[in-house]
Amino acid sequence: MSAISDILDKIPLPRMVRVRQQFDHSSVDDIPAELFGQLENGFPHGIRPGMRIAITCGSRGIANLPVIMRTIVDFCKKQGAHPFLIPAMGSHGGATAEGQRAVLTSLGVTEETCGCPIYSSMETRVIGSTPEGHPVQIEANAAQADGIIVVNRIKPHPVFVAPYESGLMKMMAIGLGKQKQAEYIHQMGFDQFYRLIPLFGNAVMEHANILFGVAILENAYDQTSRIVVLTKDGIRKEEPGLLLEAKANMPRLLPGSSDVLVVDRMGKDISGDGMDPNITGRFCQYYTGTPNFTAKRVVVLDLTDKTHGNFIGIEAADVTTQRVLNKADPEETYPNSLTSCGNQHMPMHMKSDKQAIQCAIKISTGIDLNHARIIRIPDTLHVMDIQISETMLPEIRDRSDIQILGEPEEWDFDAEGNLW
User: pTM of the prediction?
Assistant: First the structure.
């Protein structure tokens, strides 16, 4: 028996109840038909026969990404063009060409699934400068292409609040600029992102042949809710409105607060910060908004397989497990951290899931340790079917947007105190 066990074994865990949060289900039924319909209905796509077209593809876990990329490729081929994909993900994938190709493969995007070559390189070309005199660079293959199609999901950024957050403008400013431009922009600080993203994004549109953008919106169920094809001017004018729509569609933890939030897994395929702070309320760096949720303590139990050991964002947790420590790979994580000027602090780690959760309760001040309010989620992309402690049932019984699915149950730990 250790001193840690002596302290934590006295902390009781409340029984948990499975509940279902309910949000808007609206989604796109036929993605190829929707995309082709927009592009063929008089849209000024600018694609001509013989053109070499670069199509950006990021590192996020976007729903239906292989289908979306294949549809854009097929449309380019129909116009007689020669499309190819480029990983446009800044420093992700360990900031290597091989790592970024591997990220796309893990997302189901390969030369076979998309029907065209994938050119992965970390080389960039300076194509011009911003009005402030900053050099603007983009991926070398894209710089040499006859045209570029920018594709990305529009969603809130995990650090800053502005008219342009994660989306097409940021894809051009940072993703397309690979590690070099991502580092250059991050060095100026997140508190400047509200102006740097449109500054660099507009400069890319001025100096590179951006043909159009494909904006993807998702509903709270991680499904494609809308696809919008935008001209360059449309990106400037319409992306802020699409961001507001995306924010309204975001899932959230409807109870609004808990003593402890248990997150089963985190990773770069879930969020740029491993777990989306717009869900957890935990922001690692500069933030100017108001969180939708607050928890006194956050526990992370595991890393996803697709994050390949990247544990960026772990500092947003108060407690984690030895399992996370064993999987954590600095070579996958620190290039991303060095580029974004972040610093990953590994939180207190416990030998088992049970001890990690008990630890989070123990270090929560101002709560009833015998009746802790706990919410447990699979990850921040999947917050529909979650668990809440029976101590929280009185708070949600009369809500129409939360359905109670069962009776209170004990935690299902194995002999080692783990949930798997």
Answer: 0.77
